Amino acid sequence: MGAESLRPPLLQPCVQHGLRQHWAPFTSSTTQIVRINKRYLRKSSAICCQQVATESVDAAAQHQQVYSWKRPKDLARVLAPSHAPPIVILPGFGNCSSDYAAPFGLKEEGIAHFLQRRGFAVYVVDIERRDWIQVARCIASRAYWTGKSTVDPGYRWYLQRVQAAIDKACKECDSDQVDLIGHSAGGWLARAFVGDALYMKSSFKDGSGPAVEAHVAPGLGVGHLASRGHEGVRRLITLGTPHLGPSTGGRDMTGGTLTWLNTQWPGAFFKDQGIQYTCVAGQLVAGNREAANRTLAKYACNSYREVCGDGHGQLGDGVVPRCCAHLEGADNLLLEGVFHSISKQGTFADRSQLVWYGSDDVIDAWLHALL
Description:
This protein is an alpha/beta fold. 23% of the residues lie in helices and 15% in strands. The chain has ten helices and 13 strands. It has helices at 3-6, 53-63, 98-101, 111-117, 136-139, 142-145, 156-173, 185-195, 257-264, 296-308; strands at residues 13-17, 21-23, 34-36, 39-41, 47-48, 87-90, 122-124, 178-183, 233-239, 276-283, 285-286, 315-316, 331-336. A six-stranded parallel beta sheet has the order 7-6-8-9-10-13, sandwiched between helices. A three-stranded antiparallel beta sheet has the order 2-1-5, with no helix packed on it. A two-stranded antiparallel ribbon has the order 3-4. Helix 7 packs across helix 8. The radius of gyration is 19 Å and the shape is globular.
């Protein structure tokens, strides 16, 4: 099954709280239940965004509307249970570990700190910004330009760092499993890691034990594919991850790596084997190709276009359109008024004035997935 068949509808039923804020998991099931922490609201109480698709999306683009985050009054603070496994955070493309551990040199502003305050043990995959130059190994290959890339060789280094972080977390916390939180590209790289047989070991605390025999699909010849998921991963949360590429027309900007991933392990592929997937998308702004330069709507339009082929009128978190941030079979959440990252659009040096997925005020909207 390819990426095109997995693409969710652009607009999904969602539930509104207060004036503007809403989020909603959706699945392919005909009966949709909206979950807020452990409380449930029936579809009858939901506002169906599909009904206002043509009006609201075009209006948002025309007026450069930016949605605002408003924390629901009944949103409870999520605290780690006593048995919670450690969390490993996977940085997004171009990001480094400090963006999550101590952004702008401020440890108290990092998502790692906010999670630790809630009682979780947190580890961030060791990545420096300059490490991303290693992706050039992929870009320099013929496979990239013919759309046939896999995680080898451009992202192998990243997956090795993920395994190192998991080994450290399990050893220090005396745990056999971890929960993964992948931001942006870190989300789909987490999916690739979970399915890669090179990292499947029978013992995670000391790294010993035989690797699981790889199951390679016919005709691929590249990559290390497994028929079951990584036993050291309990749950996977993705934040603003571009899981799906263009459905028609556009080019996979990963040179085929994302297409390959969605062909080998489509949707929440290892869900039946016990790995729980939660995909969080943001609805902050609609892309607008007519907007003035250096505006959020114009930046979003250009960024959405790189992901899904056409950014005009698409709603998303300012970087990733929400139509590509959810997976079939996962618990899919939509957060209104949430930006893609802690940094201002187009830079890693300047702080955004908008809340993002990892803001202290936002985390509880998706953290219940680890309970």
